[in-house]
Every structure is written in structure tokens, then in C-alpha cells.
Write a structure and sequence with these properties.
- With 466 residues, the protein is of the alpha/beta class.
- The protein contains 20 helices and 15 strands.
- Strand 9, helix 11 and strand 10 form a beta-alpha-beta unit.
- Helix 4 packs across helix 5.
- The chain starts with a strand and ends in a 5-residue tail after the last helix.
- The model has no long low-confidence stretch (mean pLDDT 95).
- The structure holds pyridoxal-5'-phosphate (PLP).
- Pyridoxal-5'-phosphate binds next to helix 11.
Amino acid sequence: MKYISTRGKVNEIGFIDAVLMGLATDGGLLVPDKIPQITADELQAMSQLSYQELAYEIISYYVDGEISEIELKELIEKSYGTFRHSEVTPVVKVKDNMYILELFHGPTFAFKDVALQFLGNLYSYIAKKTGVTINILGATSGDTGASAIEGVRGKEGIRICILHPHGKVSKVQELQMTTVNDPTVLNLAIKGTFDDGQRIIKEIFADLEFKDKYHLRAINSINFARILAQTVYYFYAYFQVSKNKKIKSINFSVPTGNFGDIFAGYLAKRMGLPVGKLIVATNENNILERFINEGVYKPGEFRSTYSPSMDIQVASNFERYLYYLLDENSDAVTTVMEQFKSEGKIVVSKEQLRQVQADFAAHGVHGEECLDTIRKYHAKTNYLLDPHTSCGVAAYEQCNDASEVCVTLATAHPAKFNEAIERCEIEQTYPEQIQQLFSKPQFLEVVEADNAEIARRLEKHFTTAE
Ligand SMILES: *Cc1c(COP(=O)(O)O)cnc(C)c1O
């Protein structure tokens, strides 16, 4: 298995180099040169595996021998040993044909732990094996930061800097990131939005001299290893549901911001998992809803919502899907992305839109609808949804045919977003691990959303040693 760029200007590389490269050096995103095809018989054989065993099977298609079997198994065991649930990502039946895939049993109570525990251990493995310095730079809308820090803290040879939008993340998210007292961790709170942070990171990574000097590594979902780790739970959910019910195919409703998680679902489908529709659930920042319903990809006005981890206007993983939509034609992707840069929008043809709508459905959930859905499910089923998962459930209600099985991805634990839960007049008790954050001191620096200023802070924090 080799990795290539969606824009076609990167020589084929192997898995570890792809992990280290993060964003492709030609400005595109890395994708596998061929998507492995899993047959119905092979699926059948995987259906009884534990989460860790399944993760090994799926991931090893993509690692393709670059990490030995023993070491990869160890890495996976270590990554999911930190989860509080023995099934790692259990599936809960809420009512007929409606299931919730709980992805929040990791250290920071959000689904990003599934990928970042793995990526943290992968970086640590690579640092040890090759002796390269790993300085991680990432931008977060809230959950990635905490999860990435938790994934690498205390690991030898790794430093990390996370940018978050000052005052625009939930209290618990902020505490999870900033209460880590460790000289290898730097939290920069920027005066701006998540999109500003993401743009700054992209530009700093595009400065190849700086990137090479500081051995910068990405943690954002542009890193293919994250997508890969997330494909596993689509398979796992399918197997759990089909244990008790004969199903032909399954729909997934996915709370979406950067298009990372839902792209993992798309990849699982392309690998041969019987997925029907992938339902894109957004909040008022609904660029993806508009794209799927109208065929126009155009950022709108930024809105702060009850689901801040989805407050994103430019979905960094969208280009991966675009690559497949344009029949894996990297010249066409380059043209379209250049057009997007100069004109600020992408418009697809009628025929392409038909394909988009065959793959996806979409619903942009508004604030009151999000809260109403939390209230309704709490009252009717005693299940407390976090506001992101609530968008997923509202989109499921809107887009899923009642005769079809749908799994909604629960991307965070409600305790992370008590601001929204309180507005629903629901009282929750925090898990112990979250409660104790409130008495810890915080470590962060507030900075302007300015590339030069941020580069200066990075120069102080990162090491250049080989
Ligand atoms: C990051 C995040 C999302 C969005 O995931 P993407 O991969 O960016 O689409 C949804 N919900 C929660 C709780 C998140 O942390």
C-alpha cells in the first residue's frame, strides 16, 4: 500500500512517511493509492472479533507490514487499554432501528480519543524506532486539543503545541487542555475562531523551511492515521447490530465539522462495509449541508452554537471526498481547489450532485432543535445526549427512512458540554475525572491570531534536536 496526494504532486510514500507528512507537501491530502476491498466472507470472519482484534485487521491493511504484527498489536492494545468500557465503543439500542454508537469512553470523553490515543502511540513508536524528533502542532475547536495532549503527554521525545479559540470552547474542554502541568505541552489561546487557528496551522505547515527545521507533525484530522483509526468503529458497530438483527445494510448519522469522521465512514463503505446512507449532521455552520443539498460548497458566516466542536466553516477533510467524487483525478482536484481559493466556492455538476446525494444525506440542526432533541430523548428514553450527538439524532430523525437501521455516532459525553445541558433544565452529575479538573491550576498563553507571533512562541517551545 502506497500513499499519494489528492493533488498528485507527491511521490508515493509508505504508511509511516504518510503519518509523518500529515498534510501533503503539495498542499493536498494523502490518500491510499488503492482502497483495500474486503469481501463478504472476510467480513463474516471479522464479525466476532473484539474491538482490538478488529482494529488490528483493519489497520494492518493500511500499515502493510511497515510495523511488525507484534508491535502493531501492542500499539493497539495500549491505545484502547485507556478506555473505560471493555468494548471500547459500545452500541446502545435506543428504539427499533435506532442505535447509538458511544465513542466517548476514552480519557477525554470525546470520540477523538479513538484516533488520538492511537496516533499518540504511533508517534511514540516512530520516535523510538527512528530517533526523529516529534514536535506536534495542532489547532482545535475544543476536543482535539485535550485528546491530542492526552495522547502524547509524558511520552519521550514528543512536544506539543495546541491552538484553541480563546473563550470559544466549553469550560470542561478548556480545563482538560490547560490543566496539564507539563513543560512539553504549550496551549495557545488565540483571539479568533477555530477557522483562524486551522488556517494559521496550514500556513505554518506550508512554510517548508520552518516545518523541516522544527520537524513539525500534524495531529489534525488531515492526518490519515486518524481517519484510519476511525474506520474501525463503523465496522464494529455494523457487527454489533447484526448480531441481533438480520440486516442488509446500515445507515450512519454523523455529527460533522471537518468531514473527518464521516469520511472514515465513507472509506469503510468503499472498503466493502454494507453502508446505506451516510447522514451528515451539522449545526448552523452548515456548509456541508448546503453542499450536499445544493451542490455548492461555499463558506458562510461563522456562528457560535451549542455544539462548538462543529463550529467549522471550511471542512479540512472535504478534499479527500472531492478526490473520489472527481474519479481520483488529481489534476481536476487541483483545478477545483485553486478555483475555491480564488473564487471562494466550489460548484459541482448535476451528475456529480446525483452521486453526492447517493452517498450522503444532510441536515443542519438549529439551536432550539438541538436542545429540544436533548430534552425529548432525556424525557422519553432517559438517554442524555450531548449537543453534538443531539445534532446527529435530529438529522437521523430528519433523513432516515423508518424501515432502515441507523446508527448515530455519539461523539461526546454530555458532561463536556454542560452549558447546553443546563439550558435544557437538566441536571447532570459529572464523572469523577471531570469533576476534579475544576480545582486544578491552568496553563495557557493568550495570543493574537497572527502567524509571526505564533511562530515566535513555537520557536521557544519546540526543540530542533535530531
Ligand atoms: C470533532 C468533533 C466533531 C466533528 O468531527 P469531524 O471529524 O471534524 O467531522 C463532532 N463532535 C464532537 C464532539 C467533536 O469533538
